[in-house]
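Incident log entry.

Two folding requests arrived from the same account within the same minute. Monitoring flagged them as a possible duplicate submission, but the sequences differ. Recording both here for audit purposes.

Request one:
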Amino acid sequence: MNQVQTGQSDDIVQAYQHAAEVGGRAPSVHNTQPWLWYAGRTGLELRADRSRHLPTADPDGRLLTISCGAALHHARLALSAAGWAPHVARLHDPRSDDRLAWITVAEHAAPSAQDRRLFEEIDIRHTDRRPTVELPVPAEALALIRQAAADEGAGLHWLGQPDLDDLAVAAARANEIGLADLDQRAEMDYWVGGRRPARTGVPSDAVPERAPQTDVPGRDFGHPGTLGVGEGHARSAVYGLLYRPGDGPEDWLRAGEALSACWLKATDLGVAVLPLSSVIEVPATREVLRRMLSGVGHPLLVLRFGLAGPDQAPVPGTPRLPTERVVRPGPFPQP
């Protein structure tokens, strides 16, 4: 692949900067936005920003890295939709845990209709914690969503009974453990509806005013928000385990890319998505999920898919950090 060399047109730098800005719109655990980009003539580097890490709930950085993987996929999609062919070196510097990926572009390439469609969904995609409607998700849609994850190297395992019963118990147990841990409770209070850093975290209008009616409980934030949930019940929702063969940093990064891909595909198909990460945070409940996979891989996230009510008001978007906080110009500092 002929990579663009230093000294060529400034539109390369602008393309990298724009891709990094688009990456900043990706989903992240508690909307912590734990990424940092360096954009220069020779490439675009993605790093983890440990200042926005959740050390109590996510001590290994699993969810941080998944979040950064979603940002990486968003950035790749921005480049592809703009007519560039991105080449990605993941975890390109073993000397630093923070250096996650390095993106370069080759010559211009005509964007596919699929890339353009998914790129347009980036600003529409959102997290909806309300119940889904009592209509089944079409099987064709589920197949396309699953394929989107597979195209990014991750599996999506649909859960049926009795696994759903076990998932419900595990999710409730994870909520109990999280709320009982004073350090984790303080961490969550900081990022959700509380004194979170400006333009980060989950605002109160994205948190349900009361626990929604659903067979599998979502995260219990420990306090109500202001998001109305209506009277529906998410009985028709479909739950999937996003998994990879291993449970290391590269698996987490690739899972984040798959999360972005299948979420954007779901949005394109009119399917609402709710990630459930609390059951991943607790080792005991994560082991329950691992057994559901029967040795095929390691669970990295639970995703709920369902159809949103046509009369539901849109969920307000979560705030985003200004570009200058997450995108910096090259040259790239050494670890």
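Request two (distinct sequence, not a duplicate):
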Amino acid sequence: MEISNPLALVLAGFAGAALGAFYFGGLWWTVRKSLATRQPALWVLGSLLLRMGVTMSGFYGVSGGDWQRLLGCLAGFVMARLIVTRLTRLSPENQTGKTLEEARHAP
């Protein structure tokens, strides 16, 4: 098995990282925004459709029918997930068990 073009794989990885940052950053923003809105279901559904559409189109465009580029894009996407998850985690002093507006939407 031979790697087709190493530069294309690296660029696919960067594209996957950008797609992952968009997807998971958008998810984080949506969750925060939905806590402060009167219609959280519309925000969550609209965000899901937009994020999924952009991400799947990006994967399709980056891969170009080549499984190696698709795999490189996926690797970048997973790396972005790990980075965004780490960056958006609450700091230890803010983890008191209380959330600001979460109780407003509780049954």
